Amino acid sequence: MSETIRQNQTDSQSWLAVGAWWTLLLLATVFILVAYGDHLDVYEVTILFITGFSMAWLGKVWPPFRWHALAVAILSLFALQRYGGDLSMAQQDGWLNYILASQSAFMWMSAFYIAATFTYFGGLIARSDYTQKLGSSFAWIATTMGMTGLMVRWRESHMLGSDIGYIPVSNLYEVFILFCVVTAMIYLFYERRYKTRGLGGFVMLIITAAVMFLLWYAFDRNAHEIEPLVPALQSYWMKIHVPTNFIGYGAFAIAAMIGVAYLLVSSRAEKNPQSHFVKSMPSLAAMDDLMHKSIALGFAFFTVATILGAFWAAEAWGGYWSWDPKETWALIVWLNYAAWLHMRFTKGWHGRPMAWWAIVGLFITLFAFLGVNMFLSGLHSYGGL
Amino acid sequence: MSEKSSLKFFGKNSFPRRLLRFLGTMELAITLLITLAIASVIGTVLQQNQPYTDYLIKFGPFWFEVFESVGLYDVYSAPWFLVILTLLVISTAICVTRHTPSMLKDMRNLRTQVQRKSLASMKHNEQWASADAPATLAANFQQQLKDEGFRTRLTDRNGALLVSAMRGGINRLGYLLTHIAIVVICVGGLMDGNLPLKLAEWRGQIQIETRDLPLSQIPQESRLAVGKQAFRGSVSIPEGRSSEVVFLPMRDGYLVQALPFRIELEEFRIEHYDNGQPKSFESDLVIHDPELDEPLRQTIAVNHPLVHKGYAIYQASFADGGSILQVEAWPFDHRAGDPVMLDTKVFDNRDMRWGDRQYRLEMTNFRLFNINPDPTDEEPRRVRNYGPSIGFILRSHTGEATEYENYMFPIEREGRRFYLSGVRGSPSENFSYLHLPADANDGVEGFMEYLARLRDRELVGEIAQMMTRDALADLPEPDANLEESLQQTLMTLVGMFVRGGFDEVREFVENSLPEIERQTLAPAYLGMLREMLARVYFAGVEGHELDNTDNQNIFFLQDAVDAIGSLPRYHSPVFLMLHDYEHIQASGLQIARAPGQFIVYFGSVMLMAGLFILFYLPQRRLWVWLDAEGTGSRVLLAGMTNRNPRDFDGFFDEIQQLLKPDKREL
Ligand code: HEM
Q: Where are the domains of chain A?
């Protein structure tokens, strides 16, 4: 991260932009405190500050994030203004009905992620840099729509009834959207920093899979409907536990998809090192390194998430660790990646075996995320399909 | 023992040392990590701590015992699992102990002893000439590197100058924090586990109780005194009652743990959202502690426990606490007795006699709210409140049990009102419902009277005679025989219907009519039966307080006939109507003492801090070797990092650009 900071230091132009960004964030935070301060308790103020600082930092090391956040803010505020507190506007108002009501925003998100997948791969096959860049733009649009949808849904849940509102990270439907958005964001960060556009299609592939699940879940199971929170989920810990978890899941998913790309490139490179595919993908060493970084990122956040989960469990279930299947599977995922990191860092393993292991890791993660809810019974009941 | 052998014992390659070294190896650590992961999978696939009979049924006697001996029903406290965990802790501890000195040294050491040759062979190195003297350059570089956050030191190496610099020495602390954290967390976790109980059981000091006994009869060997030990148990307290113990689930039984205070439950509440889903579960608790001047009152809710003296009290569940009920029992057969009012309670059992049959009535449940989806509604997700209900079991003299669920208030369907009563033969089945039509006073008298009239042979006989006359009025001349037999048939049909519903009537038709006539006669029989049922009904209407609008009567008749038709499948001689209740709830509390919790949390914070330091504050070292060259100097810049080599590539370029004055010309 330090390099980016230094680049900024040498560039007074970008300092100006960062200054503007920070001022904006400060103003927004002050506004929220002044306007809603009376309704916020200590936890919410803390979360507000954590969010503010994270966004300040992210916007500094990652300029596109500023535009993304700004777009999300403007779109969400616009949507709220169109709603004016009346949920039925979702059908009556054209803007909401076609674009900004959370359900419409999610549809746009889905469409653009799928489009991004095709465009990235299309660019790779057609050897067109421009097309690949278009892929990045699509991914950004999708992410912005997804994030906006989540923001709007948050407000919609409050419009359903004064005691119903909750932050939309509480059921399987919502966390799947979170997964798409977070995974795309982490990837887009890496893409800019390490110039890895060739990996875009691979990462979008897993997001598309998540989108497919979402669509099925919404249309077949009506999962998109907002339901009030059961008492067990009414906790501040949940609000930070879940998003943290999804940074972890997202990073593991990216690592696995890089693993897939790595295996494809390395087998192609053995047959024909000069092939177009090999040359237009990032180098094997770069992918290997990024895979490691991704798993490290995921591991760090997953650890934090698991610990937050334990803190929450201590408050909700009467014990920080109960060997509940979900907890146990979180431990399994964690142990697996701990082993991966040791092999990589202290034994210097790298290349294909580690790529395979990263892919297997994703399946273990997937089981912890979905399989446990589907096949095992336990205290984590919210995600039942 | 001679000196020699003890020397050998502690010597470099002695067994203990080799063992120590083996325990501290990475290979062992990773093997243990993976083993632990796999062992944990077993614990999630096989549901833990279920009643042993369930396992016995599932696996059969042979495998049940095999699995039990390996501890598969409680994997996480099985000896082998604890051994793996302990080995991992030992391995990590040894690893940390062994690495700590060198890591600490490495955090401070600027490596001023490096040779020029080794610098020149580093992957990241760059050389250039400068017109400035080494001393000037060295001072400049030191300043510039300081500005970049490096610690620097200047040493004279036989005339040459060496600037050594390091940033991120703290990275090594990351390693120490993460690995020490693992040990700390496991130790804290072990303190809170039930290992001491296992040991006490193994030594025969305590005995797990598997019988369902009243508290006062639980033997002393299954009781644990107040102490400092960790535990986690639960207790269900009815409103207005209190408890001084909690029950600790152990394998297929439990232990009783005494508390140093008494917990009283004043009230338990469920609040609901507008749509009926539960919004909060709350208990008003009073803690009576001799050490407190006055009782401590606090309301707990899910996610909001009460912590008193290190004992944490959680809202975990709820149940009925023995609600007081007033129930009216209406025999379906009026000859079996008059309706009686029963004063009873949930969990009360009593013997009852209806007619010549003996039954055991077990009240099992009372529910104040029944918030269910309305099956007739357009939207299946819309739920509504069906009001209070009671649950009970009727056990016949043969021991056959049928479970019932009766609603207190009639529910409305298409403008008609019914008393609902669910019935099922076993808990695995869904309830099927008897819809008993409410009369104009919202009572069951209308229905019961109608049923009684159908059983009244004399009345039925009269009506059958009237109907026969009406039917045969068109005959040219009266036929006494035909009249007699038709009247008999009508009476038999009614009798069969009351006894066995339409099923029995149909069966009769099938068995007694010749096949050729069945096609035409069967509908005629059913039509006659329906006509009879209606006549019996209307014969009683005038005398009774039913609303006289015809539609209402026709609907009531239809519903009553349907209900009577399904009575044979209801298997109960009575209909129980809830009259009045006093709701008494019980709150399920989970009570835990976890003295290791603070240690675990401390370790967790260490782990989080350590990981971020480890991953995101890489250790970076730079060296500048300055040889005098004429009046100027020869500069050798070299660098290395302990992680993220790719990020270091860019970083090294930038440092190089920073230190090299006129980089573009070179
Ligand atoms: C549950 C147990 C353990 C966990 C969770 C754990 C975790 C970690 C993590 C996350 C890293 C950083 C890896 C990376 O940077 O990619 C690491 C590094 C390391 N671990 Fe472990 N570890 C555990 C046990 C052990 C044991 C038992 C040993 C010794 C045998 C050990 C030795 C090391 C060493 C030498 C490093 C490299 C440190 C460095 O040079 O910066 N670890 N460990």
A: 1-60
